[in-house]
Amino acid sequence: SACRSYEFIEVSEPRPGVGLVKLNRPKALNALCSPLIDELNTALRAFQASPTVAAVVLTGSERAFAAGADIKEMAPLTFSEAYTKSFIESWSDLTTALKKPLIAAVAGHALGGGCELALMADILYCTANANFGQPEIKLGVIPGAGGTQRLTRAVGKARAMDLILTGRSFSGEDAERWGVAAKVFPDYEALLEGALSTAETIAGYSKVAVQAAKEAVNKSQDLALRDGVEYERRVFHSLFGTNDQKIGMKAFAEKKKPEWTHS
Ligand code: CAA
């Protein structure tokens, strides 16, 4: 099952329809070593396959979401090893293997790869004092898991350049003000509750419509507006072929709660 035991993460289903992955490598502030990423990918694949889970929350601890890729693991890496093993490419499994919505609940440090991991989520919630940043420049490298691309799309070129070239951090409050985070919470407890509650709300809808909505919004990041709007319209049209469209609209007319068939 999705809830087998892991070394660097904890996996559970705390609410109906909701899967939770908690990064759990506290001594290294959840530094994202390769075995941790492998476990994360395994857990997300299991949630994708699970008939009970409809939305997933990814979190760390109060102190750290993740302090980045594991610097000690990376230090001896050569160009040819990084290149031939396509180092960090498997991190993107997060965005391709999981078709169900992923909410990142970020408290504490979300630096380097930790910030990039959070930016891969469909929805990002954080605490006001979360500490985001892309400090790779201080290590003689650059972000390698999408930071130069996703952060730039999220905050615009001016801010992204400023952050990535200086390596300075930004707070959870900044993240919310700049549109990186959808919501900001006063503390970790409220954050996790908010993320689980949103996941539960999403899990209450038609799985077909939810997957289509996620897919269509994500297309906006890759396509020109005209192509994106056309793509959306095609997906919208296709949903009239589902039972859940009939069920949802009939329930509205009858002032009843829809009983989704997820088909
Ligand atoms: N990799 C490996 N170990 C890490 C780590 C990382 N990214 N971040 C923290 N740790 C380890 C520390 O080495 C330390 O271990 P020891 O107790 O064995 O010394 C432990 O976690 C606790 O860390 P600190 O003592 O440093 O804790 P702090 O509270 O004083 O500082 C911090 C916290 C500011 C987050 C600091 O740990 C830090 O700057 N970490 C590195 C952040 C960073 O540069 N991240 C980017 C990595 S590069 C990257 O991610 C590439 C990419 O794009 C994918």
UniProtKB/TrEMBL annotation:
InterPro entries: ClpP/crotonase-like_dom_sf, Enoyl-CoA_hyd/isom_CS, Enoyl-CoA_hydra/iso, Enoyl-CoA_hydra_C. One of its GO terms (biological process) is fatty acid beta-oxidation. Its EC number is 4.2.1.17. The keyword Lipid metabolism applies. CDD domains: crotonase-like (cd06558). GO terms for cellular component: mitochondrion. The keyword Lipid metabolism applies. GO terms for molecular function: enoyl-CoA hydratase activity. Keywords: Fatty acid metabolism, Lipid metabolism, Lyase. Pfam families: ECH_1 (PF00378). Belongs to the enoyl-CoA hydratase/isomerase family. This is Probable enoyl-CoA hydratase, mitochondrial. It comes from Chaetomium thermophilum (strain DSM 1495 / CBS 144.50 / IMI 039719) (Thermochaetoides thermophila).
